[in-house]
């Protein structure tokens, strides 16, 4: 063994199936480090609860209160989604990986799509009040709030602000607020509500892509 | 004294450190903001009646605090796993349950403190506006216990399943539990629903809830027992958790590790918690709806069924308008509204000499006719017009300045005149019979009398039936023309015609064409 061998130990060989697609392996490792598979499972649980609520009559199907229960589930799905913003590696990962912003962007967009898809799949054939438009708008907007929050609180506590927004939206629903920034209480095709939700989502995605979630937890100080 | 002895004898410093470093401190501003926008503003919109405003404590405030209590407690419980210090702290002299107790205690300290601060804000505002009564304490007890229960549920989840998704899932889960309880409460029927009764969420109570009759604490006692039982059982589970994490063969060694005394205590806590919750569940199933709310026979004190004594506040001289002192803030408006129409009908056969507020009765809101309860309308000799707070005063609640007082005055006058002109409400045929609206002639007379005192013309519901026929037997234009004709008579002529024809008009035998 030479000195060179000691200084540069050969990396363990990747499994054969990864050799052809290092990009896919990178994405998979990134997802595993963010617990994306567990997040998808948690989203499936959210969808299952929503379906159970529709089947067993835990919610109002029409009227003023019809959005209350789905809103919590949609906010919960967004909260679960933003938890995947947390990285267990912290600063070393930021300094070593030039692909990180792209991985963050791809993960957030993919997870948002998965969340909407899972919830829509759960309510298929059950006529959810407001339909997929309201559901998608809520998931998108609340995810944006969570991503912005993750810049301050870190990914693990990024669920707090989305849950607070949902709790506030419940009040806005009962009080029949009409402001576009209370998009969960607006009709499905309301343009102002869509603009607000999409603007918050875009701001969250851009900021998160560039900066990433705070690596030091908010309660570590 | 050794370090070990010091550590064992002084748990307070650990608790103090936990309190100072608790994550709940970060969330307190958010919780208070949520409380202000949701709970406080909602309470301020209710009538200034202690029982009614305190209903917010167990409804809106639980929605605001409960999910965060569960989520943040789960976060605190999973700290050792999150920071990968499980092995490190396992070697310390302090047992796991003591560390967990400190973390849970600190979490509960801030949550309960913030919750009680919110309660104080609502009660101070109520004290500044209420004219009668005092703060009820059972809703506060039930609210504090429920927040504690949510926190312990979250803490147990965090301790048993430490993971990054535990905290948000605990928050969502408890949020949904509260929401399902609210849904059940809104759909409550007179037969009752055990889950709805055990959930502290309620529909908005009637405006005079707890004013004419005491609110029986039976359901609150059952709720505290049920949620307290869950809390105690979960604490027992937390105590037993280290022993449960070993395989069956290693169970004895697990018990040794936890300590036999602790295991016995854990089992006792678990058993007593389950027993308390089961008992409360069984008791709630026996609840019956009465005039003072939901009574549970095994917990009920019959003395609380007696009406609360009070001296009504009255205004006016020849015609007296009286109401319960809890609503005396509205007396002036009510008196101003009724005096002109009372003067217009004074001396007519069956004309009331007094208007008096009567209890709505909690059961009436659920479609029950409760025995012994005075009914809204005209009754007695000499006749007294009785009204209930929800029908008569409700539009004045919250922010009286923002209410369309002219519209409210007209509505209050219309109800008063309708009671005189139509007599007791007539219901249509069939099991789902609705109360029939006044006949065309009755509508015209009511409209004319209101026009005579300068109020806006009233509305009487649907003008047309489903088959396209005029609902009152005449078109709105025909009724308006007859009303105008009648209103154009001199007051003396109008009064004389009413004195002669009011019984026939009340019986519905006078047609529109017969009006002068």
What this model shows, in words?
- The complex is a heterodimer of chains A (221) and B (516).
- Chain A has one domain.
- Helix content of chain A is 67%, strand content 0%.
- Chain A is built from ten helices and no strands.
- Chain A has helices spanning 3-7, 16-19, 22-33, 36-56, 68-83, 91-96, 100-123, 131-153, 160-174, 191-211.
- Chain A is globular and about 55 Å long.
- The model of chain A has no long low-confidence stretch (mean pLDDT 86).
- Chain B has 516 residues and is mainly α.
- In chain B, helix 3 packs parallel to helix 8 (96-129) and helix 4 (50-58) runs parallel beside helix 9 (138-160).
- Chain B is elongated, with a radius of gyration of 30 Å.
- Mean pLDDT of chain B is 83; it is low at 1-7 and 363-369.
- At the A-B interface, helix 4, helix 5 and helix 9 of A face helix 3, helix 5 and helix 10 of B.
List keywords for this structure.
heterodimer, A: 221 residues, mainly alpha, B: 516 residues, five-stranded mixed sheet, two-stranded antiparallel sheet, elongated, disordered N terminus
């Amino acid at each position: 063994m030479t000195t060179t061998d000691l200084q540069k130990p050969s990396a363990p060989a990747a499994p054969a199936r990864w050799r052809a697609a290092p990009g896919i392996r990178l994405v998979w490792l990134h997802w595993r480090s963010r617990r994306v598979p567990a997040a998808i499972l948690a989203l499936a649980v959210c969808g299952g609860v929503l379906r159970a609520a529709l089947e067993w009559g835990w919610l109002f199907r029409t009227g003023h209160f019809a959005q209350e229960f789905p809103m919590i589930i949609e906010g919960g799905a967004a909260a679960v989604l933003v938890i995947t913003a947390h990285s267990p590696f912290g600063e070393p990962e930021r300094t070593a990986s030039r692909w990180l912003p792209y991985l963050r962007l791809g993960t957030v967009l993919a997870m948002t799509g998965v969340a909407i898809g899972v919830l829509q799949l759960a309510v298929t054939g059950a006529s959810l009040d407001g339909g997929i438009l309201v559901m998608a708008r809520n998931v998108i907007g609340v995810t944006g709030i969570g991503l912005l929050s993750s810049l301050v609180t870190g990914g693990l506590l990024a669920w707090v602000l989305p849950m607070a927004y949902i709790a506030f939206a419940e009040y806005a629903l009962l009080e029949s607020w009409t402001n576009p920034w209370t998009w969960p209480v607006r009709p499905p095709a309301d343009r102002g509500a869509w603009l607000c939700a999409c603007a918050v989502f875009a701001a969250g995605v851009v900021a998160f892509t560039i900066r990433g979630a705070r690596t030091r937890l908010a309660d570590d100080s | 004294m050794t370090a070990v002895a010091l550590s064992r004898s002084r748990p307070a410093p650990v608790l103090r450190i936990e309190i100072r470093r608790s994550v709940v401190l970060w969330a307190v501003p958010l919780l208070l903001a949520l409380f202000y926008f949701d709970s406080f503003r909602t309470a301020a919109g209710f009538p200034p009646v202690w029982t009614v405003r305190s209903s917010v404590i167990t409804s809106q405030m639980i929605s605001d605090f409960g999910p965060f209590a569960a989520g943040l407690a789960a976060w605190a419980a999973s700290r050792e796993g999150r920071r990968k210090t499980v092995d490190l702290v396992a070697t310390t002299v302090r047992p796991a349950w003591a560390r967990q107790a400190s973390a849970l205690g600190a979490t509960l300290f801030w949550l309960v403190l913030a919750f009680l601060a919110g309660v104080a804000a609502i009660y101070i505002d109520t004290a500044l506006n209420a004219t009668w009564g005092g703060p009820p304490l059972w809703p506060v007890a039930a609210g504090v216990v429920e927040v504690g229960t949510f926190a312990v549920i979250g803490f147990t989840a965090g301790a048993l399943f430490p993971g990054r998704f535990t905290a948000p899932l605990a928050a969502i889960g408890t949020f949904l539990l509260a929401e399902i309880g609210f849904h059940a409460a809104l759909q409550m029927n007179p037969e009752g629903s055990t889950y709805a009764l055990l959930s502290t969420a309620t529909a908005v109570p009637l405006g005079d809830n707890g004013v004419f009759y005491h609110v029986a604490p039976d359901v609150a006692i059952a709720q505290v027992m049920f949620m307290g039982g869950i809390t105690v059982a979960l604490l027992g589970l937390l105590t037993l958790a280290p022993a449960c994490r070993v395989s069956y063969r290693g169970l004895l060694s697990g018990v040794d590790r936890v300590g036999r005394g602790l295991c016995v205590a854990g089992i006792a806590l678990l058993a007593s918690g389950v027993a308390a919750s089961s008992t409360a569940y069984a008791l709630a199933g026996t609840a019956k709806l009465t005039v003072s709310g939901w009574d549970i026979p095994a917990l009920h004190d019959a003395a609380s069924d007696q009406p609360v004594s009070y001296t009504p506040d009255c205004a006016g001289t020849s015609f007296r308008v009286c109401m319960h002192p809890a609503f005396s803030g509205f007396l002036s408006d009510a008196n101003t509204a009724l005096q002109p129409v009372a003067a217009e009908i004074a001396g007519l056969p069956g004309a009331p000499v007094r208007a008096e507020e009567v209890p709505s009765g909690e059961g009436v809101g659920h479609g029950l006719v409760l025995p012994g309860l005075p009914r809204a309308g005209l009754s007695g000799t000499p006749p007294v017009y009785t009204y209930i707070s929800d029908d008569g005063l409700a539009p004045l609640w919250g922010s009286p300045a923002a209410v369309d007082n002219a519209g409210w005055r007209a509505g209050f006058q219309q109800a008063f005149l309708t009671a005189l002109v139509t007599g007791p409400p007539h219901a249509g045929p069939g099991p789902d019979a609705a109360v029939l609206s006044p006949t065309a002639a009755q509508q015209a007379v009511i409209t004319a009398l209101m026009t005579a005192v300068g109020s806006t013309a009233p509305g009487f519901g649907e003008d047309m039936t489903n088959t396209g026929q005029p609902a009152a037997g005449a078109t709105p234009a025909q009724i308006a023309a007859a009303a105008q004709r009648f209103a154009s008579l001199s007051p003396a002529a109008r009064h004389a015609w009413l004195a002669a024809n009011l019984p026939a008009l009340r019986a519905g035998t006078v047609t529109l064409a017969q009006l002068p």
